[in-house]
Amino acid sequence: MVDFISVIIILFLVVAILAQSIKVVREYERVVIFRMGRLFGAKGPGIFLIIPVIDSLVKIDLRIITIDVPKQTIITRDNVSVDVDAVIYYRVVDPSMAVTKVENYRFATSMLAQTTLSNILGQIELDDLLSKREELNKKLQDVLDVATEPWGIKITAVTIRDVALPESMMRAIAKQAEAERERRSRIILAEGEFQASQKMMDAAELYQKMPVAIKLRELQTLAEIAREKNLIVVTTGAPGGSDIGTVAGMTKAFSKAENK
Fold this sequence. Notes:
Blueprint: H1 2-21, E1 22-25, E2 29-35, E3 38-43, E4 46-49, E5 55-61, E6 65-75, E7 81-92, H2 95-100, H3 105-121, H4 126-131, H5 133-148, E8 153-164, H6 167-209, H7 211-225, H8 242-259
Antiparallel strand pairs: 1-4, 2-3, 2-5, 6-7, 7-8
Helix pairs in contact: 3-5, 6-7
């Protein structure tokens, strides 16, 4: 009876030790093992064994983590106060360094993102902040990636999500945009007048070289006017009244055509 109880106790201890020794981690996880306080390495994914009591574990998620950087009040280089917020995407590439090199890599990355956002955006002007989002995103990503590399962190993307301007600045920008549109419309109108005057000068030179062309143009204009109901034409003519006779003849002819 005593031997049977001993066997049961031994089996129970073996099962308990195995239950504590066998560990399983998912595909997107790694476990950093410390043996007697010293770094032993990272394990996973899948099943592995540890030594109970002697080994201690820290589980790390390798999936991309998103940080919503809260709004930062930033004064740009041209002394404009704006509120800027951004989103940071990063992941752990070295679990051992993420555990041993920084106390809390999530909190440290978040704080670093806030300070970097304020430092870099404070060195540029408002126009660049509004128009060069892609360049600023890339610059922020590069700076953060270099700073977090010793922690085993990889910054995958940085996105400036919103830039909130003061009400007075928004009104000033609206006035500036309106003035710019007015300037462009005036330039386009002036260019159109210039091109029209150039064409008229070319036509005048052509008429001067070929006087018969202006006579044909006059007759074409009279024909276009004749399509209207009211056909009263006042024109200058050569001595002898030949032009007036021609116009009168055209008027009579068009009148007959309309009566028919």
